[in-house]
TrEMBL record:
One of its GO terms (molecular function) is hydrolase activity. Residues 23-34 have a biased composition (Basic residues). Keywords: Endonuclease, Hydrolase, Nuclease, RNA-binding, Stress response, Toxin-antitoxin system. InterPro entries: HicA_mRNA_interferase, HicA_sf. Pfam families: HicA_toxin. Belongs to the HicA mRNA interferase family. Residues 23-64 are annotated as: Disordered. This is Type II toxin-antitoxin system HicA family toxin.
Amino acid sequence: MLTNSRDIIRRLEKEGWRLVRSKGSHRQFKHPTKAGRVTVPHPKRDMPPKTALSIYESAGWPKD
């Protein structure tokens, strides 16, 4: 499971998620066909596992 925010953002953008809002240390991404948004704290090298798990669930990714 990725826990580096830069790697997570790269994967989101590769899968079609687009940055829609940036405020403070958080970035929000929206997908053109999937429902909801994904919020990623950035920059964050080693985020807590539960935070990464929440991002995975919001993006619809399987737990690695």
